[in-house]
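Thread: Integrase catalytic domain-containing protein, structure

OP (GT): Posting the sequence first so everyone is looking at the same thing. Length is 288 residues per the record. Can we get the structure tokens written out before standup tomorrow? I want them in the notebook alongside the other entries.
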Amino acid sequence: MLKSLALHPSKFYQWKKRKGKANQHNGKQPKDFWITEDERRAVIEYYQSHRQEGYRAVTYMMIDENVAYMSSSSVYRILSDAELMRTKATKKSTKGNGFEQPLQAHEHWHTDISYVKINKRFYFFIGVLDGYSRCLLHWEIRESMNEQDAEIVVKRALEKFPEARPRIITDNGSQYTGQEFKKFIACHGLTHVRTSPYYPQSNGKIERFHFTLKNGSIRPLTPLSVEDARRVVDQYVDYYNNTRLHSAIGFIAPKDKLNGKDVSIIQERRRKLADAKIRRLEFFAEAS
């Protein structure tokens, strides 16, 4: 009979099991740990006062600051429903993924030179960035960018971390290919790796920092002297290293990652999320 009706046996037995029972709505049922309206308002208000940050960074900032506790996907849905999300088109490079990522601090140090225009004159920002933590270890704004300038900045970074013996990663600029820089590397017992020609993305960590630095401090604040520029950059580097949550390292501040505090921060976030879920369960249980 079932075969003649083109009815699968499992469906027949499901119907048989339901015989005598009232029909029920089989759509999505409200969860007892859904986000509350107070939490939604808190997310929207916090995001509106931190529009320069992405929704994932905002998620962890709210957890760390005890504003709201939820996953980044929940924050995304709340902001999407409120029509506050920004979209950004990105194109993936086809030239490769660069170096293997370091597994601890001070394995890779990236250094590079970037132009900084101050009051119609060009100066040169030279920085040293740790590839593991993304922490900027040392920086200077100098009036020239010759081989000696590059050596001085790397040497002063080494003086801050005398136990470090990193691999120095640079591009193929003349400051890093000359004999003097090679002697400097050998004298300090370091290794030196140069990136692929015409492919600055392989030194992308320091390149990305240059972009972030200029958009976050120099361009909007337009310093009128080199002294003012150094003050502005110093304030931004302090914010970047100690406060700003970096998406590439799990939304941890670079200095915390450098000092090995990332594990305890992640554990504390998980604890707060678990506690928030329990509170929602209790809230909806009382409401029902």
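GT: Both are above now. Quick notes for whoever picks this up: Residues 34-86+260-288 form one domain. The longest strand covers residues 108-118.
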